[in-house]
Design brief:
The chain is of the alpha/beta class. Helix content is about 45%, strand content about 20%. Helix 4 links the parallel strand 3 and strand 4.
C-alpha cells in the first residue's frame, strides 16, 4: 500500500467512531406523571395538554426523545401510593406530581428521583422541601397559592353579596394546608363583619351534613378552599350551593365553569407550562434541590352570570371589569 493511501485509510478509520456516534439516536428519556384527578375528569386533559405543549416548545416530544407514563390517582390515597410505586419502578428520569397528595405518595417511595410539583399548598409545611428558596431534597415546583389568598376570597364574597354575615368554609381538616387556609380566613373575618363556620371535606355525606344545617339560617355564604377532596366532590358542592341559595367563592376555575358563582385563584394551565420548564432543566442536568419553589405569576377571576341570576345577585361593575372570564 502506497504511503498516501495508507494515511487516507488511517484518517477514515479514525472518523468511523465519530460518524457512528453521530448516527446514534438520542437517548429516550422517561417522565412519570402522577395526576391527582381521575382520568375522566374534564380538567385533566387541558392540564396535560399545557404540560405537553410546554415540553414540545423546549424540544421534548413524547415518543421521539421522551416517553411519558401517566397515572390518575382520582383523589384516592391508596391508589396514589400504588401508582407512585409503579411509576418509580419504571426508572423515570424525573416525575411530575400534580398536587400535594401525589407529591406525598411519590416521596414515600423515592427520595432520589427528581420530582416537580405543578401545584402544591404549603410545600414547606408539608415537608416536601426544606425551604422555598432552597428546596434541598428531590422535589421542587410551584405553590398553588399562599394562605393570604383567603382574605381575597372573603373580600370577593362580600363585594358580590354584601348581605352575607355568616360564611361556611369547606376545608380538609386532615392536612396542614386545610387548617392553614381556614385559619387565614378566620383571622380576617372580623374585619369583614362575618362569622365563619368550618365544614369538613372527608366525604360526600360530611359535606351535606355540614352545609344543610348551616344553610338553615339567613345571610349565609360559602368559601371552598383549595383541596383535592373539594375538586372530587365539586358537582355536589355546586348543587348544594344552588339548592340552598348560597353565594359561593371557589379556589379553582373548574368550579365556575361547572356552575359555581365565582372563582379567584392561580392560572393552573400556566403552572403546568412552567412545570414543563423545570422538567426540561432537570433533564438537562440541574438538580431540584437548587431550583427554588416559585409562586404563581398569573391569577384569574371568573364570574358565572347565569348562577348569579339564579341567586338574584347583581354583580357589581367593579367586579365584572376585573374578571378575566364572564360565563353567561
Amino acid at each position: 500500500m502506497r504511503r498516501r493511501e495508507f494515511i487516507g485509510f488511517l484518517g477514515g478509520a479514525t472518523a468511523w467512531p465519530l460518524a457512528a456516534l453521530a448516527q446514534q439516536p438520542e437517548r429516550m428519556r422517561r417522565i412519570g406523571v402522577l395526576q391527582s384527578l381521575a382520568s375522566n375528569d374534564s380538567d385533566g386533559p387541558a392540564r396535560m395538554a399545557a404540560f405537553l405543549q410546554g415540553l414540545h416548545q423546549l424540544g421534548w416530544i413524547d415518543g421521539r426523545n421522551v416517553r411519558i407514563d401517566t397515572r390518575w390517582g382520582a383523589v384516592d390515597d391508596d391508589r396514589a401510593r400504588q401508582y407512585a410505586a409503579e411509576l418509580v419502578s419504571l426508572s423515570p428520569d424525573v416525575l411530575l406530581a400534580t398536587a400535594s397528595p401525589t407529591v406525598a405518595a411519590l416521596q414515600a417511595v423515592t427520595r432520589t428521583v427528581p420530582i416537580v410539583f405543578a401545584h402544591a399548598v404549603d410545600p414547606v409545611g408539608a415537608g416536601f422541601v426544606d425551604s422555598l428558596a432552597r428546596p434541598g431534597g428531590n422535589a421542587t415546583g410551584f405553590v398553588l397559592f399562599e394562605y393570604a389568598i383567603g382574605a381575597k376570597w372573603l373580600e370577593l364574597l362580600k363585594e358580590i353579596a354584601p348581605g352575607v354575615k355568616r360564611v361556611a368554609i369547606l376545608r380538609d381538616p386532615t392536612t396542614a394546608a386545610g387548617m392553614g387556609q381556614f385559619g387565614a380566613i378566620q383571622s380576617m373575618a372580623p374585619s369583614f363583619g362575618v362569622e365563619v363556620n368550618p365544614v369538613s371535606l372527608r366525604d360526600a355525606s360530611d359535606i351535606e351534613r355540614g352545609v344543610a344545617p348551616f344553610a338553615g339560617s339567613s345571610n349565609g355564604g360559602l368559601i371552598v378552599t383549595g383541596a383535592p377532596l373539594a375538586a372530587l366532590h365539586r358537582d355536589l358542592i355546586i348543587a348544594l350551593a344552588a339548592q340552598h341559595k348560597l353565594p359561593a367563592i371557589y379556589s379553582l376555575r373548574m368550579y365556575a365553569t361547572a356552575g359555581g358563582l365565582a372563582y379567584y385563584g392561580p392560572d393552573l394551565i400556566d403552572q403546568y407550562r412552567r412545570a414543563a420548564g423545570y422538567i426540561d432543566r432537570i433533564l438537562r442536568g440541574e438538580k431540584p434541590a437548587n431550583l427554588p419553589v416559585q409562586a404563581p405569576t398569573k391569577y384569574e377571576l371568573a364570574i358565572n352570570l347565569k348562577t348569579a341570576k339564579a341567586l338574584d345577585l347583581t354583580i357589581p361593575p367593579s367586579v365584572l371589569t376585573r374578571a378575566n372570564e364572564v360565563i353567561e
